[in-house]
Please model this.
Amino acid sequence: MTPVAVMVGANRIVPAAGIIHPLGSADLSPDDEKALRRRIVEQALQALRTEVARPTVFTRE
Amino acid sequence: MALRVVCYLNQFFGQLGGEEKAGVGPQVVDGAVGAARAVQQALGDAGTVVATVICGDNYAAEQAERAVAEMVPLVAAARPDLVVAGPAFLAGRYGVACGALCAAVQAQLEVPVVTGMHAENPGVELYRRQVHVVQTGAEATRMLDDVKRLVALGLKLARREAIGAPVAEGYFARGLTRNVVAGAVAADRAVAMLLDKLAARPFASEVPRPAFPHVPAPRLIKTLEGATIALVTDGGLVPRGNPDGIEALNATRYGAYSIEGKTGLDAAQYDNPHRGYDTTWVKQDPHRLVPVDVARELERSGAIGKLHETVYSTVGVATTLAHSARMGAEIAEKLRAAGVDAVILTST
Amino acid sequence: MRLELRWTDVDDLAAASATRLVGKRLEVDLQALGTLLATDARLTGIRLDLVHPGERCRIGRVFDVIAPRAKLDGGEDFPGVLGGVARAGDGRTLALAGVAVVATDQQTDSVGTLAVIDMAGPNAALSAFGRTHNLVISAWPSAGTARSDYLAAVRLAALRTAVDLARTARDTEPDRVEVFALPPSPRVPPEQAHLPRVAYVFQIHSHQRPTGLDEGILYGDPVRRMLPTVVHPNEVLDGAVLRGFMGRSVTTWATQNHPMIRALYAQHGRTLWFAGVVVTVAQATEPERVRSAFLTAGLVAQTLGADGAVFTKIGGGAPHVDMAQSASQCEALGVKTTVVVEDMSTDGSAEGMLLFDFPGVDAMVNVGSSQEPITLPAMDRVVGADDLAPKLLGETRATYGGLCGAIEQVGATRVMAEVR
Model:
């Protein structure tokens, strides 16, 4: 949960797809679901490349 | 039955001398000496100061562990029912020594302890969570009044009586919570508090706001193409059979699971004991929690240098802050030792 | 809207050959009731037990507790779940005081998630259900009945029973009548226009556990796609909202006797103007949570025109944050808020009490720590949990959260965590 991550001081935060399946979605086709997962992981990598000074939420561009 | 009480004092209050005697090591005197006489006076018939342990401020501050290790047996030898340390007022070295000795006596001898000091004594912040620290003035001008409050709380502790709220008993809040029965139901208290807030009257929230320390953000020095990335989760991924016995809630354990040679996670080989959310969907496909499949693809395509071959996993629900911090530190240490540069932690 | 709760006091509960009220003694034809409940093909082996305050008895495997209620002049009982879908909250409703229907869950192996009720000893005083005469329903799932269907059937059996019991008061003069009347929210008489307008934001489910198809929560709707919705408080008091199947520290009984709605009614027209109720669901994804938070704030601040709002949560950690996020959005629109939280710490440290820290959300009431250990003393009899009887008969350890009715997250209870 994004607000909890911010509160405890995690510095690079990427909102994912929800509590019951953060990196997937049962509503999508297998291909679309994997594309969603890939997008979230790539965004996490992008966040790792970014310098931050405080808890930062990387929202979808 | 009169209680056996041991007092702890520094060189000054123990009447050994001033700063010139601050290097004196621990010693024990039979009965009450110096400020311990005030303790005896406050005790009246309820107890007897059977021994006074005295240690110089510098000795206690400069070799703290040794000083405590030497003093605990001196205390134990007097077979106390209660230990009263100080009061240390605003004297920093003395306050820290009082806290350290009390914490050690309580933990090792299981004897009730009480100490006292001024709010700004560094010993308060260091030890108030572990032991009862009674609030006193900054100086010894009202020594007997302060000592009476120490002794009153100490007697309750020694007699295993119920201890009231910090404000009522005069000790610094220990940061512990305990269920009590309030005078009104929560709904009535909530409406009353809202009316106070609306009218800009003072109100007392029943929950302190959390204060988490700032965590400096490390910078990834390598390029992603040269970096080793690890996957960590608090969402409860475990191999079938949960070999590490990770708890369904209140977890104290985590697991390290190899993904060597795997391009993905086979649902049949994994399980999930997490009791904080409906795990139906992540059991159907563990990649919904730990993205090994796409991480391997990114490794193969060269977008990341290497995917670390161990996934760390725990169950993050109702986990105590203490265990979370410990597990996080242990996992981080292992990852660093294995040469991991960055982590993607997936959380539910 | 005007709701009359017509209360009849019950001081004894006994098995008999007919279900009827004799003075203050409620007699129940257990055989006929069992036969009625057994018509649900999802259930098998119905067992009914009567337990009484002061009896050295422990009820185990407690799933939910229902207050006996029945509409007097037509209208639907528990609309959308037991009765047809129809609006609740208006007219006369029979209510029995001193008696409750306790539904047990005989299916789950995860018994740590189920609660107990003590009828005697120190824990009886902590729970409303230690002071009521209780009719305990135990029913087992018939072969092939899925978990959610089983729980739906168990709850339906309890609702049926609750209506059956309340109907015995049909021809009785009530001991007292409680009237809940609230005019349409904007119509404030001029002489009361100075009172602060206060709304209640009532979280009724958390999507960290998606609902079953038959898990009716709002008028029978499993609230899977529900957005924040304004309801009249009387609808909540009159059976429109039932607890879902995730029963952590909340009962349907507390919802039917909603303490926050009662507290606001009690002050209505005196120190505040009760502006209305917004029901919400704790969301499982970030966009849904953000959307729900600002929609809630919009309804509270602009539709209801509230100056202040009180909030309660359901479930565990995610709803805790969701509620605070909504409250924070209200504060941003100038609405003062108070939230009712659990102490979320699991090791008794004050640092762990909260999972959020939002600007303006600084007025908090707590309903205690459900994780704090409690001792269950030895009893003479265990009801509702034959399989656990060896353990539940003797002195055993539990937590406040495991004592049904000790902590009601809607604010019906007096247990609170004090920082020391």
User: Anything to note?
Assistant: The two ends of chain B are 57 Å apart (CA to CA). Residues 3-169 of chain B form a domain with the Rossmann fold fold (CATH 3.40.50.2300). Chain B touches chain A through 37 residues (CB under 8 Å). Chain B has eleven helices and 14 strands.
